[in-house]
Amino acid sequence: MATDSPPRSLAPFLLFLLACAVACVAVSSQSLWIDEAQTALKAIPGTLHGWWHALDIEHSSNMQLPLYMLYIWGWARVFGVSELALRAANIPWFFVGFFAISHFLRRHSGLRNAALLVFCVHPFVWYYLNEARPYLMQLSGALLVTGALFSALDQPDEPLPTSWWWLFAAGLTVLCGAGLLGVPWAAAITLLLIRRPGFCRSMLRSGLPALVVFVPLLTVLAIYLAWTLKENAHPGEQPMSLSSIPFVFYEHLGFVGLGPGRADMRSGGLRIFLSYLPSLCILGIPLIYAVVRARAARFGLAPRLVLPVFLVGVLPTAFVFALGITKHFRVLGRHLTPLLPFVLCGIAVAISLLWARRRPLDRAVAVCVVLALAGSALECRFARRHAKDDNRDAIALGKAALAKGEDVWWAGDPAAANYYGLPFSMEARPGVALFQWDALPAEVAGEKPPDLILLCKPDLFDANSGVRGFIAQHRYSQIEAFPAFSVWRR
Prior knowledge:
63% helix, 490 residues, mainly alpha, globular
């Protein structure tokens, strides 16, 4: 970022060292939470047939992540299925994203350095780097595709080189193969690129080798994804609500680490944010200042590009929100991962413009934005309120109780129970935990009171309050609390 930064040849190297440090620090061996446990069960089988059987029998939206699920299965054959190993599978994709920014912004050193810095300290990147799910993979595909878009629009009169076509086609494949919800962005960006002068002519001259390789892959992928839609393997989370919309931008703009943990948000609602207002303002105030300044400069875009780039970001976002409303699933920040490159670029442009102005206040604001994002990322990684569901420790208590001949109820995720080796059943049997999920009070009223009850996320696993009513009726005492868990004993 401008003349007072390290020499241009040194800045990318220092940023690469920062990326290496992030890759080492951001990935943890915390307990797997619900969705990660589902990923782990697809990575465990030793054969492709077993992998497909595990995916098919679940018949969920995981079927619409084919490239990631195949990748994590192959990764596990080499590195194993521990918590750390499964999450470390994101590290190569983190560096693919780093490379995409470095490559496509290479002609704009100040913006490139700012974008790499924001990428390395952004809490969204940290959070999903530390999660055994496809979002870092999809982000890297999105960065390749949006980087290719930027490069093509930045030099509209230059022919697109062969390397551009290889990276663009690979990015499309990763973006869509890591999740069905990447398709709207892939379509929007491709349609915008087709409008570029000479695009089709360049495709015939320099793009044919890449197209010969990737068009068949994309065709097979499109047929497969269409089949999963026909099979009704769609997200089955919670109904979409209007409150989900601001939370998406709360997460994408980097506030998530400075606010309450996700478990607290589930139970506390909007009121819980009031106690975090001072910390949220640490990022919010300088970010607003930076964005207003950048908006006055149209974020560095030529006037003819403002509306097309705006629409490419907005229309797919609106489509996914509409899909959430009509298909009754709750849209979260991770479902809009392909939007993040636009956010990262917007913040990077704002920071670089402030830095280039050389005014002490502007440069101080730029530094504050970066430090606040870094602080938010560190909070996501290390603060207890942001810890993942502690299935591992809760299940360890359950297994110890079963070993003593005690009766146990498991009101938690079956995939996590399978991964951590807790035997469970829908019927009461010696040495096996009784599985309870959304039990009605009448259904559990006549059950023999167990010695131990493991209850996870009551709004999800005890929505009918059957287990909680049973706990109150039989005067259980809470003996332990883990992230997302309460443990009860008679």
